[in-house]
Amino acid sequence: MEGTYWAPEFGRDRMRAGLALQIVAASTGVPVESMTRTVRLEGRACRARWLAMYLSHVAFGWPLERVGHAFGMNRSTAAVACRWAEDERDRPVLDALLERLERCVREVLEAPACELGL
């Protein structure tokens, strides 16, 4: 079926989700460890993880189910995160931050691959 979502390659998607988490951590000061806990997160860590989920959705072009899968969440959690981030884009400071983060992620992914010799 055209457009049907299948579970992605686990390692590659987790690596990309990790990139989004690291970039959000570097720009917000919220450590990745705080965003990836398995218990209920406090406000700043939760919103930072939502930013990383939203960044994955827009920068990687992932559907919400794939975002949820890569972050160990379900689709509805990814949808809440993306809805929150879209609403927050009305704030110029957050919109500018997300623009920069999207550009950063795209530049990293579009960079030529570098073969590392042993």
Automatic annotation (TrEMBL):
Chromosomal replication initiator DnaA C-terminal domain segment(s): 16-85
GO biological process: DNA replication initiation; regulation of DNA replication
One MF term in the entry's GO annotations: ATP binding
CDD domains: Bac_DnaA_C
Endpoints of the signal sequence: none
InterPro entries cross-referenced by the UniProt entry: DnaA_C, Trp_repressor/repl_initiator
Domain of life of the native organism: Bacteria
Protein's recorded name: DnaA protein helix-turn-helix
Lineage: Bacteria, Pseudomonadati, Pseudomonadota, Alphaproteobacteria, Caulobacterales
